[in-house]
Amino acid sequence: MTSVRGALGLVGTALIGRLSDRNDSLLAKSLGSVGKGGNSSGRRGCLLLGIMASLIGCIIALDDSLTGLWLSMIPGAFLQHNCDVFKSLLSEYHNDFDSVEYNPDKVAEELSPIPSRSSSVGKLGMTVGISFMIGPMFAAAANPSFQSATYIATFCILVAGASVLTLPLPLASSRQLCNEKPENCETQQSNEFTLSKMIKLQTPKTRAAMTLLVVRLNMALAFHIFNTIWPASLKARFRFGPSDHARFMSFIGVTYALSQGFVAKRMINALGENGKVLGIMICCTVLGIGRYIAFHTDNLLVVYASFLFIINALGILNTVITADTGSIAPSNEIGKLFGILQASESAAGMVGPLLGGTISHYLGKDAPLLAVVGIYTFLFFFMSWGYDGLVISLSRDERKEMKKSM
């Protein structure tokens, strides 16, 4: 089921990413025109499509059977990629903010104060962390039946759908300018972020995108390889049961929420642009060593302490990468780029468990852990070698070009 979900996500993330960039599609003109403003919006259309997919999955899941379980997974795995669409939407908002920053005459009073990209991304990640905290805590405390849990999930999905309808559309995106002046669309529309062009490394933007793709793919591989041995290790050392896992996931949720909402933004601001690579290298070190310690200790308190550092490092790293991803792509290609990056993570979700199981079978139970440490060692040196020159410098150049054009 994990592999099938990964395969559906591999196709779905790329598809949703492309659709979210287009305001002229059937989806944008139908679902995307429902809500605040009433204009066609690919982002809003994809968000509502994802919510509908989740709702259909919950309805199918009420059929308490193995077939129902499989069928309920398909709509969400294929079409529900709202977190990536929200990242694209946040990046587009910030493109508007940057435009106002360099041209104060443009509705500046509507956009002040202007938050940083890392702050916005951190708040989005914080909401994810809070949900990971509340969900397991509620399940552990209330112990609802599967049917009751499905009803509760359905209610939450409907609330999310109502919230999406109130979202404002970006104010000054190039896609909206194209709608107003069709003669300018040819010059503004581009097709730079395709996998074939990224592999060829033809332009600075594709090289930056490929760097981010390598980082995302390796981080996802490390996660899935580690997960092949982690649950069994917890059970063998500490006799972890369902309630123990619920408490552990709640701890991870609240830590990730604090990391994204508070720690990441302050760490990134403290390091500054010149210290960003150093911060990334420290995070890679913590992610590798922390997992090694957590896997080998016989003290549960040390496990929790290790994951406190691991989750904070992961939150900082994810915030940096997401913010930099949004800063290198124009508004009409942000969704496509996020879709490709998420598709790489889905591919890792298919390959990682198989790779971890194979390594464990042939090379011993500690081999997957060593592979994870090796991946983060590679990322340590890869980031120190190329992240500043390939990604950060491009983001800096993009801001300079925007300033000149204004």
What report would you give on this structure?
Helix 3 packs antiparallel against helix 5 (82-102), helix 11 packs parallel to helix 16 and helix 14 runs antiparallel to helix 15. With 406 residues, this protein is mainly alpha-helical. The protein has helices at 2-20, 26-30, 42-61, 66-79, 82-102, 117-142, 146-164, 174-180, 185-188, 195-200, 204-227, 230-238, 242-271, 276-296, 300-328, 334-363, 367-405. The longest helix has 39 residues, at 367-405. The chain is globular, with a radius of gyration of 22 Å. It is built from 17 helices and no strands.
Mean pLDDT: 82
Number of helices: 17
Q: How many whole angstroms does the radius of gyration measure?
A: 22 Å
Q: Ends: how far apart?
A: 51 Å
Strand content: under 5%
Percentage of residues assigned to helices: over 70%
How does the helix and strand content classify structurally?
mainly alpha
Low-confidence stretches: 104-114, 172-189
Tell me how many strands there are: 0
Quick one: overall form?
Answer: globular
H and E string: HHHHHHHHHHHHHHHHH
Largest sheet, described in full? none
Key phrases:
mainly alpha, 0% strand, 406 residues, globular, 17 helices
Question: How would you summarize this macromolecular structure in one to three sentences?
Answer:
The protein has 406 residues and is mainly alpha-helical. It has helices at 2-20, 26-30, 42-61, 66-79, 82-102, 117-142, 146-164, 174-180, 185-188, 195-200, 204-227, 230-238, 242-271, 276-296, 300-328, 334-363, 367-405. The relative contact order is 0.15.
